[in-house]
Amino acid sequence: MTDADNHPDSGNRPDTDRTETGDRPGAALLDVRDLNVVYRGSGWRRPSFHALHDVSIRIGAGETVGLVGESGSGKTTLGRALLGLAPVSSGSVTFDGTDITRAGRRARRALSRDIQVVFQDPYSSLNPAMSVESILAEPLRAQGTSRAEASVRIGELLRQIGLTADAGRRYPREFSGGQRQRIAIARALALEPRLIVCDEPVSALDLSTQARILDLLIDIQQQTGVAYLFISHDLSVVRYICHRVAVMFKGRIVETGDGAAVTSDPHHPYTRRLLMASPLPDPVRQAERRRRYAALA
Ligand SMILES: Nc1ncnc2c1ncn2[C@@H]1O[C@H](COP(=O)(O)OP(=O)(O)OP(=O)(O)O)[C@@H](O)[C@H]1O
């Protein structure tokens, strides 16, 4: 995408039909219901912490749902719960009909193909001692893909993220931050997941690189139909990429709805405060980002 009008600040992410509640009609790919997560403490020095309170959220196939909220509100904890990595005390996380919180080992193994994650920091999320080829081969080999098939798939993945085939022989240190994040995205895509938890995937990148990575994620979604849970602090980014947005405050979801509506006409007082702290649109920032983006196009 090279049109400056399709810039992250413009909030014109193509939308699809919505129901009145903002949910897509039909069965959800992911259905989180009344989820509670409690981190157990150890004595009075480290008391237990109730991180998520009765959280419910749905994500449809091919949909991007944004999760915004201040630091410590529980966004990453929810992302971890989808990966089966949070101490769930009650509630359910149903992915395509299987409750992740109660799944046995075999079901979990199958789910680990379907749900992948991309982290904020591409510098620390890639093993510096491994070539890109080995990084991308790892999830494929772990699922029993043959060497020959893995090699073909790695070629496809590099093309998909816009890197040349020789990138496979190089190491993470030889790439820029944006290129490393592309490699992290390719690793997440290797097993053709149906949902990717994107935990602040562009916050460590400069503005023009952010725009390119967001466009890559949108292109990939259009090609593959993957769904995203997109965790971010940046409302302009969320407005650009997300179909729907959920706002978290102190471990609770306080508002959900259409991405453009929530970010321009918030109902909950906390969302209004969030918007005031990061005004949208900011004409100066918008013009600056458009200029940089156009120069790169
Ligand atoms: N392993 C843990 N043990 C105890 N408490 C934890 C643990 N992990 C997170 N927490 C607490 O749970 C709360 C939610 O943390 P979480 O990382 O989910 O927030 P967040 O919204 O993702 O924050 P940020 O935007 O800063 O990443 C915080 O108060 C945090 O201190």
Automatic annotation (TrEMBL):
**Please, which domain of life does this record's source organism belong to?**
Bacteria
Report a single Gene Ontology molecular function. Answer: ATP binding
Task: Please state what the protein is called.
Answer: ATP-binding cassette domain-containing protein
User: What is the organism of origin for this protein?
Assistant: Micromonospora cathayae
- Biased region (Basic and acidic residues) positions are 1-23
**Annotated region Disordered: where?**
1-26
> Can you tell me which family this protein belongs to?
Belongs to the ABC transporter superfamily.
Which Pfam families does the entry link to? ABC_tran (PF00005)
Q: Where is the ABC transporter domain?
A: 32-275
Q: Which UniProt keywords apply?
A: ATP-binding, Nucleotide-binding, Transport
Q: What InterPro entries does the annotation carry?
A: AAA+_ATPase, ABC_transp_ATP-bind, ABC_transporter-like_ATP-bd, ABC_transporter-like_CS, P-loop_NTPase
